[in-house]
Amino acid sequence: MNHSNASNDSLITLGVDRALTETIEVGFGVARFDVGGEKSTSVGLSAVMSF
Questions:
Q1: Which of 22, 23, 26, 40 could serve as 50's disulfide partner, Cβ 3.0–4.6 Å?
Q2: Which of 48, 43, 51 has the alpha carbon at shortest distance from 20?
Q3: Average pLDDT for residues 21-50, to the nearest whole number?
């Protein structure tokens, strides 16, 4: 993140991964960030299958 004297930016993240079987994994993540006084939330979901 780019920090300057004019603002105080912040970022908080949380992620969880879970192996359902030997070949399948799922993941979930949430990020909260405040850049220049504007607060936002980002959410992600992933699924991985090995062949």
A1: 23
A2: 48
A3: 93
CA distances to 14, 20, 43, 45 from 26, in Å: 14, 7, 14, 8
Residues 40 and 19 sit within 8 Å (Cβ to Cβ): no
In sequence order, the 6+-apart residues with CB closer than 8 A to the CB of 21 are none
Strands (E), 1-51: 10-19, 24-35, 38-49
Q: Could you tell me the sign of the dihedral formed by the alpha carbons of 31, 35, 40, 42, in that order?
A: negative
9-34 tens-digit pLDDT: 889 999 999 999 999 999 999 999 98
Are the beta carbons of 27 and 17 closer than 8 angstroms?
yes
